[in-house]
Write a structure and sequence with these properties.
The protein has one domain (about 1-100): GIY-YIG endonuclease (3-Layer(aba) Sandwich), CATH 3.40.1440.10. It is built from five helices and three strands; from the N terminus they run E-E-H-H-E-H-H-H. It has helices at about 25-35, 40-45, 60-70, 75-85, 90-95, and strands spanning about 1-10, 20-25, 50-60. Strands 2-1-3 form a three-stranded antiparallel sheet. The termini are far apart.
Length: about 110
Amino acid sequence: MSGPHYTYILASKRRGALFVGSTRDLADCVLEHKANLVDGLTSLYAIHMLVYYEVFPAAGPALLRQAELRQLHRRLKLHLIEQLNPGWHDLYDFIVSNTSNRSEAPA
């Protein structure tokens, strides 16, 4: 599929359990995780906070980045999150309220 794709990191809490995924529709995907509609780690450990995401022009680069992030040591994932989201805010409300411009995260 063409169009923007997203690679994202969810967290259970600040510096808690992490989950890396990718999707075409970030808002719907995160909502499914929040509602525990996705079986697995995210529902088992309540990993529901969107703490980081990147936007890509197509699925291929997003999937490559997802694989890259999954291979990163936890310490590096935490550093990546804290560089762009030092307060560990849940970015879900931001992306839902800014549907016209989801490619920019809050400062």
